[in-house]
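Changelog note: in this version the structure field was regenerated for every chain. One regenerated record is shown below for reference.
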Amino acid sequence: MEQLDLFNYPAQPIFKSQQSRLTMDSQTFMDWKSRIFNHQQTILSSPPPQQMSLFDLKPNHCDPEQINPFELRLQNWEFFTMPDDGDKTCIYFIIDTALPLLLYVGETKQTPKERWTGVHDCRGYIENYLALNYQYQIKNFVGIGFWWDTPIDRKARQQLEQKLIQRWKSPFNKECWKWWGKPFG
């Protein structure tokens, strides 16, 4: 009778998941982009609600209904590899200008470069999104726009971020996966 070797491990651990990632076919990908585009175009073409007041109130410069991410000056989404050009908190928007699609809304208490230099899940989503566009030879340009006139208070900034996410339903934000799924995560 042969004694079993306690230290003879298989080359691949048997407990490791061997599932492969599924990739959307071209038509499904285009349909996914079209649904998001249609929602966001509805937001752009609908005038924001006007609330009437008995008093003359100053307009709120942080009103999510008034912030249009598609009007911001965009930079290459890999801006964090270049010299820092921002030194304060902001709300930022990842946009594919080819369709256009607002893909992600974020806020940071750091400079944008500090926020993006470390680990950021959205970078992986962008890379996977770009790879699928490339695979199907779909034109795209992903850029990032910064809105600098944000509240200094972090809680107020995060509330503004959430309102913008809910308004635009940006697909890379986890709050919106219930609408668009999570094909790039």
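Spot check on this record: The first strand starts at residue 74 and ends at 76. The two ends are 50 Å apart (CA to CA).
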